[in-house]
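Dear colleagues,

I hope this message finds you well. In preparation for our joint manuscript, I am sending the Mg2 transporter protein CorA family protein (Candidatus Azambacteria bacterium RIFOXYD1_FULL_42_11) sequence together with its predicted structure, so that both groups work from identical material. I would be grateful if you could confirm receipt.
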Amino acid sequence: MKTITENNLTWVDIEKPTQKDIDWMKNNFNFHPVTLGELIPSSQREKVEHFNDYLFLVTYVPIFVEKKHTTTPIEVDFLITRDHLITVHNESLEPIKNFTEKCQNKPELKNKYFGPTTGHLFYWINEEFLNFAERQLIHIGKNIQRIEDGIFKNLERDMIKEISMIKRDILDFRIAIRPLHRIFESLNHKALKFWQDNTDLAVYFSDLLGDYEKAWNEIDNYTDTINALENTNANLLNDKTNAIVKTFTILSFITFPAMLVATILQINTKTNPVLGLPNDFWIIVAIIFLTTALMWLYFKTRKWL
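The corresponding structure tokens are as follows:
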């Protein structure tokens, strides 16, 4: 449990909550038992609940897991009173660490973050989350650029799996960040009633929605880009496959008449016009060569080669 206090506001961050932490909140705040019961285990769905003297929010932060090459939503619970903001999460989060370091090392930022209400503090913490989410998108952009380079370096077949992995990562990111839209919209209705004497919070919450839309539009652009690259890759791969099939088909048609003639001329019958003649082998080879050349010339004049 980490605690930071400034301007009569206190932020308490609880990582991997235990029953001792739950008891501490129960003894020091007027939180409903149902609310505390949703902290262990996590509630598994986003929500904004307005009680008489506190707000309870369940949000998510998209975290990219490099080993799995995918993005996972990590739940963060907020319990907000008039002078306390408590964050509860089951995993270590980089944006929480970054926000803590800023508060500890930069007094001017700490003073800005903590005031004048816990609603403003909530805004700055979620700004850190959204900025972190945008930074998480950088690896998707780099991977898409790598896919584009690979496609036009004749590595279409190798790119099939890479494209599938990126599409999964984009889908997971969309799933992780989508609930934030409903949460920030709910804040404009429920939360503003909680801080009725601070009408400027509407501007802050609208800004959160704007930053969310910025991240959502960016992931939308990546979705369109990877779909376009997938279509391009598929078309190039199909063109290559068709070219190979065409080549083998033409070769079959060129060599088939020659092989047919050679087979007929090798039939050992009394009326065979070639067998038994001097240099009959070379005559058959010459006929095969001539037939192949004529077929090649025919395909060439038809512009099939």
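For the figure legend, we might mention the following. The beta strands are 2-6, 9-15, 47-50, 55-65, 70-80, 84-89. The chain has a mean pLDDT of 84.

With kind regards,
E.M.
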